[in-house]
From TrEMBL:
Its EC number is 1.3.1.-. SUPFAM superfamilies: FMN-linked oxidoreductases. It holds the Pfam family Dus. The active site is at residue 116. This is tRNA-dihydrouridine synthase. Keywords: Flavoprotein, FMN, NADP, Nucleotide-binding, Oxidoreductase, RNA-binding, tRNA processing, tRNA-binding. It comes from Mangrovibacterium diazotrophicum. Its cofactor is FMN. CDD domains: DUS_like_FMN. InterPro entries: Aldolase_TIM, DUS-like_FMN-bd, DUS_fam, tRNA-dHydroUridine_Synthase_C.
Amino acid sequence: MSSFWNEIKAPIMALAPMEDVTDTSFRELVTRISDPACLHILFTEFTAVDGMNHPVGKERVSERLIVSESERKLLQEKGIKLVAQIWGNKPEVFHKVAKEITEEYGFDGLDINMGCPVKNVVKQGSCSALIDQPTLAQEIILATKEATHLPVSVKTRTGIKKHDTDRWIRQVIETKPAAITLHGRTQKQQSDGLADWTEIAKAARLRDELAPEIPFLGNGDVLSYQQACQYTSEYGLDGIMIGRGIFHNPWFFNPEETERSKEEKLEQLVLHTKLFERNWNGKKNFNILKRFYKIYTNGFAGASKMRAELMNANNYDEVYRIVDVHSDCTV
């Protein structure tokens, strides 16, 4: 069945789901500074279906699915799709939660996390652990598809301890997901070493053979929009999903201008802080923001000193004061 995934002209460009990164604040900031011709799909943070199914834990877990009014309006204006990523290991819970998310939230699609290599998640038999449980993995995909009219995609890795791309991707393709994104590392590698793009290409050729209608994206170590376009062509893909590359350059999806001024960087730092404060004040730890400050405070005189001060800030007002001291940026 065709979906928005099939309507986007290649190369499809997506920002990966990342814990404590791709919340509504950061997604809105990225959307604001991106060219909609260069960014097509955003993902939520990882959302546990068990948590969504828990009478006590649901309130906290469902924060990962919050979309601010300003973000939603901006996405609609720019025509960018928003997909909720979910994870777990029980098909019946996937079915229940997928139905609930479909009915109660305004997402454009659902994505199943079968790639996260974090040990405490893997110990539960979830995410990348499902690579070695193909029957269960297929049941999860099919149960999710059965529960929703939204397109259901899958993000995964090439294997557990070694590449097992041929066997595993064949089994994923059998369930006919709306799209597949393959990270070119095994579970054992975590984020170490280099992503193996020959394995990603191998999987794409299987897709060509078995289900050419399924869009196929690669993921891993892509640090520029130009590299993303090159890899799409070189490895025969439909697009690229960007993860850590966004930390090298938040303007990743607006590639025409490569040099950003100090004023532009600090403007985005302030905007990000204000969005986070508005959306999460009293709900999320202020210190989460500090991982982002590093991406705005570089490449200009005094950046390291400013960065050190921001790392020691204790609240939003201190951040605004530090920025004010270091620039003429209005806060």
